[in-house]
Amino acid sequence: MTLDLTKIRADFPILHQQVNGQPLVYLDNGATSQKPKQVIASLVSYYERDNSNVHRGLHALSMRATDAYEGARARVARFINAADPAEVLFTRGTTESINLVARSWGHAHLKPGDVVLTTEFEHHSNLVPWQQAAKAAGATLKYVPLLGADGEGGLDMAALDRLLTPQVKLFAFTHISNTLGTINPVAELCRRARAVGAITVIDAAQSIGHGPLDVQAIGCDFLAFSGHKMCGPTGIGVLYGRRALLDKLAPDETGGGMVVSVTYEGATWKPAPERFEAGTPNVAGAIGLGAACEYLDSIGREKIAAHDDALVRIAMEKLSALPGIRIIGPRKGAERSGLVSFAFENVHAHDIVTFADEDGVALRGGHHCNQPLMRKLGLTSTTRASFYLYNTEQEIDRLVTSLRRIQKFFAG
Amino acid sequence: MQDLTDLYQSVILDHNRRPRNRGKLPTANRVAHGDNPSCGDQCTVYLRLDGDRIGEISFEGSGCAISQASASLMTLNLKGKTVPEAEALYADVHRLVTTGKVDEDNLSDLAALAGVHQFPARIKCATLGWHAALNAAKGDPITATTETHKD
């Protein structure tokens, strides 16, 4: 492994604590990542020195806050290689970003007879908004199947070609499945969608900050992510949209800050990004997100990706050896992101999580906002261990030891 | 580890491994379903009400050891009770799983649920089946969810 883990772990104050008398092993990064002191310091510094409302003030603090907020936008644009900072809209997170596209774009463009395409393994946040948009427009929502009894086969690319008809107006898919760990070939999916004239929406919640990400190389129209899963604060996220699309898109929310001129009769909109950021934005959150971009790039995202990969290979090796375990998603040795979801026949995920917590190991158990996928795989819940840059091989050993103890306890 | 052995007492493990009265009840005249949306646990309770008395009771569902054992214990304890008696017993069970305070005489084997109060996140697991049972008993075949009903 190429990361200096002692140095990295020293950046994360929260990791240095005991939980239930054991050193914390935090393996719930798929839900949210921890924050380095560099990000925390950026929030403290903003609130202690620069706090002010942005864009409308003429005094020194307001100008500093505005510069920092817009600086964060430019930093995020560089992080994802957007062609223009105006293509970066700040939102509350992935869910709000996807809803914004579903409502604004969906309302303007979807008509009866149109098809919205998504996949069988989306998080609810990239599924329910499309159900709602399709219903509102009288359009049809279709799903590209997932292959394999354990979902190990990934997206059915042959079925995708059959489903991608000219009626498809929008194709929404995840970059990395939060439940399976499957990595979708996003650039290829965008290429095929573009060939039938469909626009593309990518849920990058699980991939952002875990490796390099280049929206221009991927060729997507929209891409959504949250700051809190990439070492940033909660309550801040991004919708990337291609400028040409954003310029034609009506706002979803209206109010202050996004208008050029208002009369008693009506109003006109500013261009992106302000058009989509009504009201006082999450200034501190955006600044914290910019600091997170800076932090992750100072470590190196290729190195983080290699670290995730090394950990998940070790985890797959060691977890596969546990008797009676069912691991879903790509098979051992195949490409997968830094997470593993598994189920034991006789121990429910919540019992596993409670026991692991007693050993200081933080896991996630449940349906992972993937209820239709769980049903498809014949499961009600799984336990998930998800890794990030500060996790170590020794922590995987702690996980395995805990799981062995749990199995023994429930075997009676 | 003391807390966990409180939570997972042998009675709980036994009922989780060998749930009693599990399955559909062919003679049921009441049914209600409970969902715990935050964790995906589900429980359907079937009752045969003879007048005001619970003549037969069974459950189906999936969930953690706590939810399965609680539902199993519940079926043993509610059979033969009138609806008001069932409601009174649930009030005691609710007090037990939220405070750990138990009147041993009154609750017998249900006292095994006392450890739940040390794990607030698991209270909903322990009460899911009971919500469904009381909804069924009151002839109210609606879906109970622990998100919208008070624990």
Account of the protein in words:
The complex is a heterodimer of chains A (412) and B (151). Chain A has two domains: 135 residues, Aspartate Aminotransferase, domain 1 (Alpha-Beta Complex), CATH 3.90.1150; 257 residues, 3-Layer(aba) Sandwich (Aspartate Aminotransferase, domain 2). In chain A, 40% of the residues lie in helices and 18% in strands. Chain A has 14 helices and 19 strands. Chain B is 42% helix and 20% strand. A four-stranded mixed beta sheet of chain B has the order 3-2-1-4, with helices on one face. The longest helix of chain B is centred in the middle third of the chain and has 17 residues. Chain B is globular and about 40 Å long. Chain B starts with a helix and ends in a 6-residue tail after the last strand. The chains are: A alpha/beta (412), B alpha+beta (151). The interface between A and B is medium-sized, with 19 and 21 residues.
Provide a short characterization of the protein structure.
Chain A is an alpha/beta fold and 412 residues long. Chain A has helices at residues 5-10, 37-50, 60-79, 94-109, 128-137, 157-163, 186-195, 215-218, 243-246, 283-299, 301-320, 349-358, 371-376, 393-411, and strands spanning 18-19, 22-23, 25-26, 88-91, 115-119, 140-144, 146-147, 154-155, 168-174, 199-203, 222-226, 237-241, 259-262, 267-269, 325-328, 339-344, 361-362, 364-366, 382-386.
